[in-house]
Design brief:
- The chain is built from 6 helices and no strands.
- By secondary structure, the chain is an all-alpha fold.
- The protein folds into 2 domains: about 90 residues, Helicase, Ruva Protein, domain 3 (Orthogonal Bundle), CATH 1.10.8.640; about 60 residues, no CATH class.
- It is rod-shaped.
């Protein structure tokens, strides 16, 4: 066992640089995939550049890789692709200008819908008696006395039953 130890140590020391290189490569690959996930493939419908198997998507991933290796920033790479293919390449529209409407329209629609439903529920749940009381004009004491007398007569007739 002691004879194999130097050989094992030498093997581990030789593998360390390659492990660091593999980790660095995987970090670069992750960055390529992250950028590619924000872009829509011009060939495939509703697929990101990261998920698309098309030749153009492969070329775009290679382009992103080359630009990252050259030291370009994520924003610069995305902007270069937008300049080449237009804003339609972005899976998520920018939050500025006219496309800001795309972000706020669902929120405004929900608010307007909630307002309409609230007003409809309020109208449907109001009792007819409350509406009648609000709509009834003020009665004088004489009119109120006649109304009460008429109500008492009608109630008395109902209690006696059919004639």
């Amino acid at each position: 066992m002691k004879r194999n130890f130097p050989l094992l140590l030498l093997l581990v020391l030789l593998c360390l640089p390659s492990a660091a290189w593999a980790q660095e490569t995987s970090a670069e690959q992750r960055e390529v995939v992250e950028i590619a996930r924000t872009l829509k493939c011009p060939v495939c419908e509703s697929q990101s550049v990261a998920d698309s198997p098309s030749q153009l998507a492969q070329e775009m991933r290679a382009y992103i890789q080359r630009r990252l290796e050259a030291g370009d920033s994520r924003q610069a790479i995305v902007q270069a692709l937008v300049d080449r293919y237009g804003e339609g390449i972005l899976l998520e529209p920018p939050r500025a200008g006219f496309t800001l409407l795309v972000w706020w329209l669902p929120v405004l629609s929900l608010a307007l819908g909630a307002l309409v439903v609230g007003l409809a529920l309020r109208r449907w749940t109001r009792t007819p008696a409350a509406d009648a009381l609000e709509a009834a004009p003020e009665m004088s004491s004489e009119e109120l006395a006649r109304y009460r007398a008429r109500l008492a007569d009608e109630l008395a007739r109902r209690e006696r039953g059919p004639a």
